[in-house]
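Session log. Operator J.P. requested a structure for one protein chain; no other inputs attached. Running the standard single-chain path with token output.
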Amino acid sequence: MKKYRVNVNGSLYEIEIEEMAAPAKMSAAAPAAAPAAAPAAAPAPAGAGAQVKAPMPGTILDVKVQAGQSVKKGDVLVILEAMKMENEICAPSDGKITGVNVRKGDSVETQALLCTIA
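Structure written below.
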């Protein structure tokens, strides 16, 4: 057994992992290693106004707004998938979208800037 200390979102956990013997023979159907992900393109600079940030890490499934678009409080801005659930990220106030910093398929961390509203 190997012991590790892991920090997950600021909480410290101690875990034990059992080492297992390697299989004697790998089958041809064994899954191949995933290819390395291409580096993400740098997002456009944030616009002026209130920042709308990701409440949790996940993947952007859809971006419902674009820069210059007017929105009302509660309008869906982005759909964020986290833990196999779709989460609608809504406008916190009426205004105009001054910047969109994510694209469909982007992976984001907690507090990543999604868009700005002025």
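Operator note: Confidence is low (pLDDT under 50) at residues 40-46.
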